[in-house]
From TrEMBL, chain A:
The protein, known as: Transport permease protein
Family matches, as Pfam families: ABC2_membrane
GO biological process, one term: response to antibiotic
Database matches in InterPro entries: ABC2_TM, ABC2_TM_bact-type, ABC_2_transport, Nod_factor_ABC_transporter
TrEMBL record, chain B:
PANTHER family for the chain: ABC TRANSPORTER ATP-BINDING PROTEIN, ABC TRANSPORTER ATP-BINDING PROTEIN NATA
Protein name in UniProt: ABC-2 type transport system ATP-binding protein
Topology relative to the membrane: Peripheral membrane protein
Domain ABC transporter: 4-232
InterPro entries: AAA+_ATPase, ABC_transporter-like_ATP-bd, ABC_transporter-like_CS, ABC_transporter_ATP-binding, P-loop_NTPase
Domain of life: Bacteria
Coiled coil: none
Pfam (any one): ABC_tran
GO BP, sorted A to Z: response to antibiotic
Biological source species: Kribbella rubisoli
Subcellular location: Cell membrane
Single Gene Ontology MF annotation: ATP binding
Cellular component terms per the entry's GO annotation: plasma membrane
């Protein structure tokens, strides 16, 4: 059935994109929480945080973008869980389709929905004074990094959706993901942290991704961070993809 | 000609031995009812036949294809209507049909959808979201979705559970219609009257085995011949209900 994979994936992606179109609140709520955080940090806490000569909104935005994605992918596991529960998942499985298309449909939908949320968040940041001299190449690099991160955590969301026992359980996996940027260089420079926290913060994936995006926006030399960030994202993507497909195969065998 | 062949089927969930050697055959174009109480294993049989579940032992084939080895071929020739209407609530009725038509790789999905909406008296509701449908309409849509691509074998798992009497009759009519056009139907039910009204053959699944299998006439002969008694014929509650509520025509 491999010959149908692209066509079936397109059909199923169209279906779940239509779900999003009919309940645009999923995109709006995905964007609202990070926007609220951005307002809070820029206008309340930000004044007390020393980021040197960098404007705080410029400093903050990369972390906010990762939080946007982390909260956005919770809807992927939610939608997948609802498909399983409603029986439509079984209906798809009993059809002569390329079976992995069922998962790819949800993954591509997640990508589209998250990109829209990201555009909204960046738009608000621009209104709040975010400025960058980044050229088209740097913007593309930022987009590529965010897409890679989205794919990696979306496949993680697929694992959560397939293995959840309840609706709450399906989206609970995203809480640690949303929290992770707080223990990184996303909000404050790591050099003010106690040594244990600092060691964690500097060696977890968010810091390298945030630093990479920040340097791309600021047109600074990027250094090693981009390779560390890529290694984290690709590693997570491969693991999550392997885990999700193994779980899926066991589920439908 | 035999379309469905099941032999020595066994399945356990941990300690629970649900199927302990199930055998039956279903002829082309007939309606076969698998009758049993809740938890008898009816759904397990249907899930195995529709390639959603692997059996522990035994063989099963549909249209000559082994459900374990040739599962892709089996999926080409079957459709499954599960116990709970598996429809997409956020899409409209028509979009649901178009979706399945596309996944069955059929030309002109729009036309297929419109034809089925008309056939199941859902044309007016076709543009509405399924979330607004009544239970009967949902079930009709569910069955309509199963007929896309005219699969030669249709599995209906408790198709009328939870439906009101009118909706049940609508579903029964659709099932009879199917068999008239040569489709083989395997349905499971816990309602005796449903099996009696619809099925050409009835098999009773009890404690993991088929304990009897035959036509209604054959099953009747298992008991001592009927005594003739004269009883005043009272209308049943169903007769009263249907007369009072009026039309059995599908709601709009």
């Amino acid at each position: 059935m491999a010959s149908h994979l692209i066509g079936d994936t397109a059909t199923l992606t169209g279906r779940s994109l239509r779900h999003i179109l009919r309940s645009p609140d999923t995109i709006i709520t995905t964007a609202i929480m990070p926007i609220a955080m951005m307002l809070l940090f820029v206008y309340v806490f930000g004044g007390a945080i020393d980021t040197g000569s960098v404007k705080y909104v410029n400093y903050l935005l990369p972390g906010i973008l990762l939080i946007t994605i982390a909260s956005g992918v919770a809807y992927t596991s939610f939608r997948l869980f609802m498909d399983l529960k409603s029986g439509i998942f079984e209906r798809f499985q009993s059809l002569p389709i390329a079976r992995s298309g069922v998962l790819w449909g949800h993954v591509l939908t997640s990508l589209v929905a998250n990109l829209i949320s990201l555009v909204i968040v960046v738009g608000v940041a621009l209104i709040m004074g975010f400025r960058t001299g980044a050229g088209i190449g740097a913007w593309l690099a930022v987009a590529g990094m965010l897409i890679l991160f989205t794919l990696a955590v979306t496949w993680l969301a697929v694992i959560a959706g397939l293995s959840a026992k309840s609706v709450d359980g399906a989206s609970a996996f995203s809480y640690p993901l949303i929290f992770l940027p707080f223990l990184s260089s996303a909000f404050v420079p790591t050099d003010t942290m106690p040594s244990v926290v600092r060691a964690f913060a500097e060696n977890q994936p968010v810091t390298s991704i945030v630093n990479t995006i920040r340097d791309l926006f600021a047109q600074q030399p990027i250094g090693n961070d981009i390779w560390v960030a890529l290694a984290w994202c690709v590693g997570l993507l491969v693991l999550a993809y392997a885990g999700a497909t193994a779980l899926y195969r066991r589920k439908i065998s | 000609m035999t379309v469905i062949q099941v032999q020595g089927l066994e399945k356990s969930y941990k300690d629970l031995h649900v199927l302990r050697g199930v055998d039956f055959e279903v002829e082309r174009g007939s309606i076969f009812a698998l009758l049993g109480s809740n938890g008898a294993g009816k759904t397990t049989v249907v899930r195995i036949l529709s390639t959603l579940l692997k059996a522990d032992a035994g063989t099963a084939s549909v249209q000559g294809f082994d459900v374990f080895k040739d599962s892709a071929k089996v999926r080409e020739s079957i459709s499954l209507t599960g116990q709970f209407a598996a429809v997409d609530e956020i899409l409209t009725g028509r979009e649901n049909l178009v979706l399945i038509a596309k996944l069955r790789h059929i030309d002109d999905p729009g036309k297929v959808a419109d034809d089925l909406l008309a056939r199941f008296s859902l044309t007016d509701a076709g543009g509405r979201r399924v979330a607004t449908y009544s239970g009967g309409m949902r079930r009709r849509l569910d069955i309509a979705m199963s007929l896309i691509g005219s699969p030669p074998v249709v599995f209906l798992d408790e198709p009328t559970t939870g439906l009101d009497p009118q909706a049940r009759i609508e579903v029964w009519n659709s099932v009879k219609e199917l068999a008239k056009h040569g489709t083989t139907v395997l349905l499971t039910t816990q309602y005796l009257d449903e099996a009696e009204k619809l099925a050409d053959r009835i098999a009773i699944l009890h404690e993991g085995r088929i304990i009897v299998n035959g036509t209604l006439e054959e099953l009747r002969q298992l008991l001592p011949p009927a005594k003739v008694e004269y009883v005043e014929k009272q209308p049943t509650l169903e007769d009263v209900f249907l007369t009072l509520v009026g039309d059995t025509a599908p709601e709009k």
